[in-house]
Write a structure and sequence with these properties.
Number of helices: 15
Number of strands: 0
Helix content: over 70%
Radius of gyration: 20 Å
Largest sheet: none
Strand content: under 5%
Structural class: mainly alpha
């Protein structure tokens, strides 16, 4: 296993800097926009069903990818019996990530939602070490835990505490970390590839999610929602569905060119930016000195991580080659 990982590390490093930076910027932009749009749909318009909104995002993903495949714009393998085995446990992590993320958005103020999402970072770091066998320098680990320290300080002074919201967002952290790491592991171009992972993830979980939504009365509440004739609500709802597809695609793309941890840290930096904006325009931020200090510590840790990652990517390849030799000899 370690010998195979040693062989794969140089392959991951051959991606030039521009695709790495562009894929990270694309992911950060999509992630930034969808939080704002989801917040509008679920809070401003008081749409009662985060699950139904997630179903809309899954259906949009399936439709766009299938039409693209029919028109030979993209390619992914046709369905066969081996695909569920190849994907597991991604579909379960995918729907858990979707539902918990949308639910937590509606239960917490925007700044506190973004702060508590930082706990995805150490979880991703831990899972990459356990599942992918990755190794990180002490400097990067210190940067990661600076982000967590800032999150603790900010969350400790939260004046709008919601136990239900905290539970949802911490579950979302777990699902996001596991989903990112397993996506990195599963999107082998010789098997499903990134488009196959996206399509079959959404495909396998659409009907079970609809069944859950129907059995819990969620679908009924969404059907009776009073703003279905409101053009602005419909615009935001369908924009959220389209951005859901873009977010899933950009996440896979960023994980392909970078690591799952880098994708998570990009999301964290984006979330801190949203927190700053939420102080001015969100209307639900309650200022406190400790909260503001915690947010700034988070941002400093995130920027430090970005600097260290870019510096390590620009180092000569010789140290990496020596490490690979050591890994080969150990295995």
């Amino acid at each position: 296993m370690s010998a195979r990982q040693a062989e794969e590390e140089p392959a991951a490093a051959v991606h030039p800097p521009l695709p790495r930076l562009l894929s990270a910027a694309f992911y950060g932009t999509c992630s930034f926009l969808i939080v704002l749009v989801n917040k509008t749909v679920l809070t401003t318009y008081r749409f009662p069903s985060p699950v139904v909104l997630g179903i809309g995002q899954m259906a949009t993903t399936i439709l766009i990818l299938y039409v693209s495949k029919l028109n030979k714009i993209i390619h992914f393998p046709d369905f066969d019996k081996s695909i569920p085995v190849k994907l597991f446990p991604l579909p379960l992590l995918y729907v858990g990530n979707h539902v918990s993320g949308l639910s937590s958005t509606s239960k917490l103020s925007l700044p506190m939602f973004t702060v508590l999402r930082k706990f995805t970072i150490p979880l991703t770091l831990l899972l990459e070490i356990i599942i992918l066998g990755k190794r990180y320098s002490l400097s990067i680990m210190i940067s990661v835990f600076a982000i967590i320290l800032g999150a603790f300080i900010a969350a400790g002074s939260d004046l709008s505490f919601s136990l239900e919201g905290y539970i949802y967002v911490l579950l979302n952290d777990i699902f996001t970390a596991a989903n990112g790491v397993y996506t990195k592991q599963k999107m082998d171009p010789k098997e499903l590839g990134k488009y196959g992972v996206l399509f079959y993830n959404a495909f396998f979980m659409l009907i079970p999610t609809m069944f859950i939504s129907f059995s819990t009365g969620d679908l009924q509440q969404a059907r009776d929602f009073k703003h279905w004739t409101n053009f602005l609500f419909l615009f935001h709802f369908f924009l959220s569905c389209f951005l859901g597809f873009l977010l899933m695609y950009s996440t896979v793309l960023c994980s392909h060119y970078n690591s799952a941890l880098t994708t998570t840290v990009v999301g964290a930096i984006k979330n801190i930016s949203i927190a700053y904006i939420g102080m001015l325009v969100g209307g639900d931020y309650i200022f406190s000195t400790l909260n503001f200090i915690g947010l700034n510590i988070c941002m400093a840790g995130g920027l430090r991580y970005s600097f260290l990652t870019l510096r390590e990517n620009n180092k000569p390849k010789q140290p990496a080659d020596e490490e690979n030799i050591c890994l080969h000899s150990k295995s």
